[in-house]
Amino acid sequence: MKHPILITGGTGFIGSHTVVAFAEAGQPVVILDNLCNSSPKVLDRLAKLNANPIEFVQADIRDAQALDALFARYSFAGVIHFAGLKAVGESVAQPLRYLENNVSGTLNLLQAMDRANVRRLVFSSSATVYGNPVRMPIPETAALSATNPYGRTKLMCEDALRELHAADPRWHIAILRYFNPVGAHESGLLGESPNGIPNNLMPYITQVALGQRACLQIFGNDYDTPDGTGVRDYLHVCDLAAGHLAALRALHEPQLLTVNLGTGRGVSVQDMVNTFARVNGVPIPQKVMPRRAGDVAVSLADPRQAKALLNWETQFDLERMCADAWRWQSMNPQGFDTPL
Ligand code: NAD
Ligand code: UDP
To answer: In a 3-state reduction of DSSP, which class is residue 190?
Structure first.
């Protein structure tokens, strides 16, 4: 029997898809999540998708005793660390909550791992650590900065990991900088289910498509981009999940890897809306609004390092991202509260 992998935040959007990818690869996992931004009903969906039961522990990464008990119970081969708060606007209003949860929580997890002699970690970072990037596509060597408290927490965790690895080279660490994950599991059983009004483009589009929201607001059509709307590097969440498996496999030697996970291809807001409407045959009413504060015009990954170091690249195209996102939303109008 292989040693299990601990997946913190494993009932969340990216975590739940990663749990499925690991289970399909024959890698046992244990989920730890405090359910502050996810539903326990995710576990029923995971049970439908996986032949073997998935262990779940409801606990907080800031709870050292709970972590020690968990590390004593299982002999983990490594940790994939998704747990964290991720809403940029909320982080501006509640910076201390974000620092406490994301930074203190990560430090607490690292200390528990060290005590348990488990020194293999894949960390969820974000393209937000590039701040206002000057060069496109963005290489991992680009300057780092934070433009909001959420981004600051990611940068602080990255810095902590770099300091840790410099001080103790026994650690195997992969820092993964995600660009814009969208889409859903092809079964329609798992997907993104934000609380309240979605901040992100794709869940907003799917709620408009369903008629739950009247109209998509396009935040700015006067950017210096081909059609004037913001350009991002969207990747399918199942490709992103596979990136974690690839990262864990690449961590066979003690080292610190930092890689972008993205496609390297730019998609504008207008491209995204048009593709979604065409692929799914659903109209998306839209209106142009002023730019959203803090948005950059373009954000694109240089994905070559991920290919070179992890042998990973994306498989799914934009059409597939739109089709899977819509299947999930239309099969689950109430998200995970929709009866199975
Ligand atoms: P999510 O909110 O769906 O999942 C995060 C999970 O962590 C949730 O289930 C939540 O309940 C749990 N959690 C939060 N704080 C916790 C704590 N203190 N203890 C235990 N569990 C806790 O978010 P996601 O989109 O799946 O993102 C996963 C990770 O990837 C996050 O760290 C996020 O910052 C990062 N990330 C996400 C995106 C994105 O666009 N979704 C982009 C870049 C980076
Ligand atoms: N966006 C938009 N309307 C929305 C949500 C987002 O026009 O309701 C735009 C946003 O301005 C950006 C792109 O869609 O250009 C992606 O935004 P998202 O919040 O999904 O990702 P991020 O800005 O964090 O890259």
So the answer is: coil
Give the pairing type, strands 180-182 and 216-219: unpaired
Q: What is the 3-state secondary structure (H, E, C) of 301-331?
A: ECCHHHHHHHCCCCCCCHHHHHHHHHHHHHH
Does residue 51 carry a pLDDT above 90? no
**Where exactly are the structural domains of the chain?**
5-182+235-262+300-314
* Given the residues 98, 130, 150, 223, the one annotated as active site: 150
State which CATH number among 3.30.420.10, 3.40.50.720, 3.40.190.10, 3.40.47.10 fits the domain covering 5-182+235-262+300-314: 3.40.50.720
Residue 52 confidence class, pLDDT cut points 50, 70, 90: confident
Report CA(176)–ligand 1 centroid distance (Å).
14
211: left (phi over 0), alpha (psi -120 to 50) or beta: left
* For residue 1, pLDDT beyond 70: no
Q: Which atom of ligand 2 is nearest to the CA of 219?
A: 7
Q: Catalytic: 204?
A: no
Atom of ligand 2 nearest to the CA of 127: 25
**At residue 309, does pLDDT exceed 80?**
yes
Rounded percentage of the chain residues whose pLDDT exceeds 90:
98
* Ligand having the closest approach to the CA of 336: 1
pLDDT in tens, 179-190: 999 999 999 999
For residue 293, what are the contacts with CB-CB under 8 A and spacing of at least 6? none
Element (H, E) at 284: none
pLDDT tens digits along 105-133: 999 999 999 999 999 999 999 999 999 99
